[in-house]
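Lecture 7 notes: from sequence to structure.
We start with the chain below.
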Amino acid sequence: MIIEVQLSGAEFRRFTIFDLLRRRKQWQGPVLFALILGVSAALCFTRTDTQGAMLLGNVLLAVGLGLPCVYFAYFFSSLSRQVRQQGLTRPQHVYTVTLTEKAQGILADNGREQLTYAWKSVHHAYRNLTATYLYLTPQRALILPHTCLEDPDQLWALLTKKLPKEKCTVL
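Predicted structure tokens for the same chain:
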């Protein structure tokens, strides 16, 4: 199976949000920070008899809610910047993936380099409504949009055949 990957900005955004926020759970740090400072602010608000407690509570609450908001705003603005820098405002060809049933059955070619991977070394495969993400390592994934495939079910059937059940997840 040969897949000519035409990647759009929208698909790149969906993948990045999935990878960083859902798979790597990088939302937990900012949310935990907001929770800790929010609880601290609530404790300050209960100390109405202590001078400056209300002011400290307001400062803690502002910082506790403000910094996570700034973090997520920066994340989404840098994501938009990346889409523009990579020229993905319109879909473009980024790489070609060839999948075969051989032991070394994954070949990725981006025009500058060719990589060959064994099926047994694949980290994980995820399928959502618009694409399949084939993680060759925990940090390196191939985005396979379903718009580039004649039959996405055929791709998923090959992946579930070559990979163990615990390495295939439908989102």
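Points to note: The first strand starts at residue 2 and ends at 7. The first helix runs from residue 9 to 23.
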